[in-house]
Amino acid sequence: MRTSHGSIQGGGATWYNQGRSAAYQKRCRLPRRSSPQQLAARPYDARVQTIEIHSAALGVAKRLFVYLPPDLPPGARAPSVYFLRGHEREWINPAEDQSRDGANVIDAYLRLRAAGRLGPLILVFPGLASDDNTVPSVLVNMRAPQLANGAPGIGSGRFADYFFDELIPYVDAHFPTMGAGRARGLIGFSLGGFMAAKAAAERPDLFASAGAYDGTFLYAADRGRRVRAADSVIRNPMFDAAFGVPRDTRFIAHSSPANLIVRGDVAALARVTWLIGYGPERHEPWQANFYRGEHLVACLAARGLANALPHQQFGAGDHTWRTADTFAELTLPLHEQALRAAALEQG
Predict the structure, then answer these.
(1) CA-closest candidate to residue 31, choices 155, 188, 191, 148
(2) Which residues lie below 8 Å from residue 298, measured CB to CB, with a gap of 6+?
(3) Which of 147, 153, 281, 334 has the most CB atoms in a 10 Å sphere around its CB?
């Protein structure tokens, strides 16, 4: 696995599901389209380092951004938090939608640091979609990567192998993280919420906390053996590469966070601090994933697992990056508590 460092001025100018119907885009909560000129005009955030990993699993190069706290003392280590959505730029691009008003999640982190509410954390922003952001991986080893129709950055489609076996070890080897153990957290928005909950439910040995705002969760059925086949999200053509055509519903059930929680090792899942939030019911269906969030919280409760958020429903929340950043600002101190406790476990 070869790696290189550099800078990025643009890229990823095409959004998920370009050319799909407006109904599909709304149903899956897709971000706004921006022109290539808008995205190429300036770096997303000069405070991050840009990393390129030449993945053996995928057979292509993938980028990630890493924010290393400048006040981390020499020789010191810090927990890491992985921010998931699709393209690596989304959590740090102030212009990702019109709600952010020139800020991003790093600014939310720095407000917490300035207020003395948070210690140093290493923030990681991986790319887990095609490079043009039209084909989401949903953090699976894709069933039919050839159906990505040549979208750049898909390669073999083995995104789960890339994330768990290459990206995380790379970050731990090249940055002053806590290394081995569970001192890692996850925060995801929309499809990133799906991926964050999936990663923690699938590998609770790697993560001490998992947060999701307005996650695009699928509905578990038949005691976690199946997913609701009529779910319009599953039928969305942008998941052709990930889930196959016709849909491999057994594979989808094995990859869905709700199903993984229902059927997983409850003792292992209980070691994860779960932080699940979503917009209000009145904002369904286009500006909140209220019912999907309620379903995931119900799956946790059925296993005796608590949602550690002080309130899971954001009354004024909507499906925008402003609210996603607010969710991150609310939950980062709770992540840090879990991560510090996990670090003490490993000595």
Answers:
(1) 191
(2) none
(3) 153
Dihedral sign for Cα 313, 315, 319, 324, please.
negative
User: 328: which 2 tokens?
Assistant: 């991150």
Q: How many CB atoms lie within 10 A of CB 233?
A: 21
Could you report the per-residue pLDDT of 99-131, keeping only the tens digit for each?
999 999 999 999 999 999 999 999 999 999 999
Q: Which two tokens stand for residue 79?
A: 């927990």
pLDDT tens-digit profile of 195-211?
A: 999 999 999 999 999 99
Separation CA 112–CA 49 (nearest Å) = 21
Sign of the alpha-carbon dihedral angle for 23, 25, 31, 33: negative
Q: How distant, in Å, are the alpha carbons of 90, 163, 212, 214 from that of 293?
A: 21, 24, 9, 7
